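User: What would this chain look like folded?
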Amino acid sequence: MSELTTLTLDKALSEAGRWIVAANYEQAILRCNELVMCYPDAVRILQARAQAYEMSGDMPRAIEDYRRILDVLPCDSRAMVGLARCLVKAGQTSEASVLARQALVYAPNDADALKMAGGIDEGLIGRGRIAATRSRFLAGLTNKAIAEMRRMNLAEPDRTDVQVVLAEMLWRDGFKITTIELCQGILDEQPDCLNAHVILAALWSRIGNTEIAAFHQCMVERFDPEYRVARDWLAEASPYTARDIPAKPAPPIPVEAEAPHNDADGERDRSAWVDELIAAAGPVTPTAVPEQPQPAGGTEAARPPADESTEGNVETIPGLPPLEWTPLQTNDEDAAGIPAWLTALQAEKPKPPIPEGAVDDALDLPFEPGMETAPGERSADRSATVMKWSPDARDLPPDNARIMPAPAAQTPPATDDAPAGRQKARRAKGQKTKPSAVDTLALARSALQAGSFDEAAEYYTALINDDKNLEDVLADLDAAAHAYPQVRRFYALLGDVYTRKGEVNAALMAYHRALESDRKEEIGD
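Assistant: Here's the prediction, encoded as structure tokens.
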């Protein structure tokens, strides 16, 4: 048994195939299991292992591998026949008969499928019909072949394999938007369909959307790392060329940790003094103060006198070193630079606190109690005044007293200090201004996260109309359309963005998705 490190994946699978022919099934299964550890979803490895399991008599595991193969390659007639054989041995003859008739559509002369099919006239798609239609397409009768495949798809809309063949024909004939929609529908039902991923990777690369193309490219490499399955399926039309890869990839080189840095002068490691600095900044445990002996008289011992050099009554905390400071020395030059208002403020003595219940007279204005000058009159004219109401008043106010209505709000006349233009600016100060593009984008994203799709769409529409932040808007709408496919307005806005950017095909596809959403809503209603 050769070591995997010295083989390519193709040679390792060829070696496993020779062991199957030689009835050395255990060795073939062991080799396939080793390869699966390196490439868990490679469909060629699954095909070899399923065959080895079937020949060894392990039907449950063979059935599991065959079903997985059909998840990746819905049109693999060999997997259909192999799964049908295993199901017959497991006693599930009815499902085996369906799979056999399905395989006869692609391989009309398969002997095993003919035995298990039963009545081959059953079913909407007759024996060899897809194989003949695909041959006519490759011969140049593209329109008739596509029309025939459309009829078969309408006859049995739940068959993914029919949809895969139709998508291949549409892609080869240049129908980009229809092909993308059909492949996306296939992936909604079978997310691991290699055929759909190959077509979408090629289409999105040609359209120019590198991010989506890279995603489908990763899926292709996951199921077909050598590109040999895609090459066998599409022949010269395949966007990939078969390649050789190692059967056991080399492990990634571990990143070495950076060695501790030591200075040339012999200084300590940087982490050491950092740890000491953190420890020094932590809380300090106070040391216990020894109790002073009590005097004979029972009174407390007098505290030692405070240091005369310190100001204030400051107590030291045990366990912490005392703070040392030096008063700032000032000279005449510094004193000359101090502002006069600061000097006066320092010289001013603070006012004594106001007793509770007293009134501060510092802000009292001259006021004549009981009398208020009516608006529009001079203070010397006392003929018409307003009397203050008092609950103790018993008599009516004099005849010359009158109540003045509140004056209407008037705009003060323009003066030299405040011209008319500035007054208009003050009046317009309270009006709302249009938010910037950055603020509008932030509002749109907040509305999108909150689930307010209509509000978010309004903000994105404003940005699109102003040609602002189109790349950010495109990324947001693309993610929103994938996250909320039921919101047709996102597709319509995507079409608007692509139109602004000049990408006509992408815009048409987005508008088409919006129309499809409308039709689905009408059908649902």
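The mean pLDDT is 75. If you want, I can go into more detail on any region.
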